[in-house]
């Protein structure tokens, strides 16, 4: 029998000994770290929102520009639109900073390989552009017959082009990234971290959109759950960021092109949704299913050995003997030609929390397992 056979045996959750999937990457540290992470994320977002909103109103008043108030309940100005987008974009550095502060590293928030896989992000975005154009085909066709699109249409399109990608990415880093991981960190098992963390973050994502319509809430919830599945299957946020960016940019761009008022597009009161929302709901489910199928056919790693700063000796998840095993302080991936499907370099295997048998076998064998050998 191969002496490394025990290292190639997966635990019941389908992850090799010593490796963790994205949602459960921060498991094992004291529970209060996750609670503090959530509190800092919410508090930081509120402070940024108030600051940028007040700043936008003050600047509009100073320059004699419309403020959006007193001009109809749905009026949104390009400057306020910019402030809103920058509010969500600020969640990128905020989420990275909070994870760095509480868990000693931030690189794994991008992906389990410790960096942004730009090849994967761009490839998914290019595939999804025609899909979302098709979903929004009605608005595209209406836009060709539109006359005056409004004096602010050009400004809205410019703000959309420059800041909507950051806004969508900020939501992914906050909801599918830090929030999912903070909740998932309260569980030892990767599946529990994924299910509970993903469900909680998706519900918060739905509530954060402030919709009073049941159809819209169903759409936001299904969208969040689909993005959670995509982050799990790809081991990072890149594909979800691509999906979120394309969805938001196409929807906003098509709406402005069709002459719709941005305030009306943001109207989420009861009654604005309907059975037509089944199309975007279905598209989210289908895209998640396609990503699931695609990752099963490619060597896209969805788990890795956490760095030493995450597996602290003070952690309940690490045995007193784990410090004797060599481990790098940061993830050290190697990538393929286009950088899309990165495969982490071999590391000495250690068991996940609770996997006592795997830990013993790994110590006896003393070998390493390239996580790139995994198939989805």
Keywords:
disordered N terminus, two-stranded antiparallel sheet, single chain, disordered C terminus, two-stranded antiparallel ribbon, mainly alpha, 12 helices, 376 residues, 6 strands
Description:
The chain is mainly α. It is 56% helix and 3% strand. The protein contains 12 helices and 6 strands. The strands form 3 sheets. The protein has a two-stranded antiparallel ribbon with strand order 1-2. The protein has a two-stranded antiparallel ribbon with strand order 3-4. It has a two-stranded antiparallel ribbon with strand order 5-6. A hairpin with an 8-residue loop joins strand 3 and strand 4 (343-344). Helix 6 (153-184) crosses helix 8. It is globular, with a radius of gyration of 22 Å. The two termini are 26 Å apart. The relative contact order is 0.18.
Summarize the structure.
The chain has helices spanning 31-63, 78-89, 91-103, 118-135, 137-144, 153-184, 190-208, 214-234, 238-257, 262-265, 278-297, 356-365, and strands at residues 20-21, 303-304, 333-334, 343-344, 347-348, 368-369. With 376 residues, the chain is mainly alpha-helical. Strand 3 (333-334) and strand 4 (343-344) form a beta hairpin.
């Amino acid at each position: 029998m191969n002496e490394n056979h025990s290292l190639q045996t997966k635990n019941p959750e389908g992850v090799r000994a010593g490796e963790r999937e994205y949602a459960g990457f921060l498991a094992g540290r004291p529970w209060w770290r996750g609670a503090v992470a959530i509190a800092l994320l919410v508090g930081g977002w509120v402070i940024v929102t108030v600051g940028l909103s007040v700043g936008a109103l003050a600047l509009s008043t100073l320059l004699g520009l419309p403020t959006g108030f007193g001009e109809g309940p749905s009026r949104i100005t390009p400057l306020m639109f910019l402030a809103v987008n920058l509010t969500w974009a600020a969640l990128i550095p905020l989420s990275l900073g909070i994870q760095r502060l509480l868990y000693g590293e931030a690189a794994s928030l991008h992906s389990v390989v410790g960096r942004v896989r730009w090849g994967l992000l761009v490839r998914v975005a290019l595939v999804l552009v025609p899909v979302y154009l098709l979903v929004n085909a009605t608005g595209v066709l209406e836009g060709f017959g539109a006359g005056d699109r409004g004096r602010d249409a050009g400004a809205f399109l410019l703000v959309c082009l420059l800041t909507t990608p950051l806004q969508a990415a900020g939501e992914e880093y906050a909801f599918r990234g830090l929030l999912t991981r903070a909740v998932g960190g309260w569980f030892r098992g990767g599946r529990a971290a994924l299910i509970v963390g993903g469900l909680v973050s998706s519900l918060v994502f739905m509530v954060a959109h402030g919709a009073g319509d049941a159809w819209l809430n169903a759409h936001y919830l299904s969208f969040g759950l689909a993005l959670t599945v995509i982050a799990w299957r790809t081991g990072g946020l890149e594909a979800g960021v691509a999906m979120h960016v394309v969805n938001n940019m196409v929807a906003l761009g098509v709406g402005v092109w069709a002459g719709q008022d941005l305030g009306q597009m943001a109207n989420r009161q009861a009654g604005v949704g309907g059975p037509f929302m089944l199309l975007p709901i279905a598209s989210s489910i289908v895209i998640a299913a396609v990503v699931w199928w695609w990752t099963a056919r490619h060597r896209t790693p969805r788990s890795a050995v956490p760095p030493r700063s995450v597996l602290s000796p003070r952690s309940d998840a690490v045995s007193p003997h784990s410090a004797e095993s060599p481990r790098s302080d940061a993830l050290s991936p190697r990538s393929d030609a286009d950088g899309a499907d990165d495969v982490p370099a071999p590391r000495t295997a250690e068991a996940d929390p609770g996997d006592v048998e795997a830990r013993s076998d790994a110590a006896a064998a003393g070998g390493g397992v390239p996580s790139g050998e995994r198939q989805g």
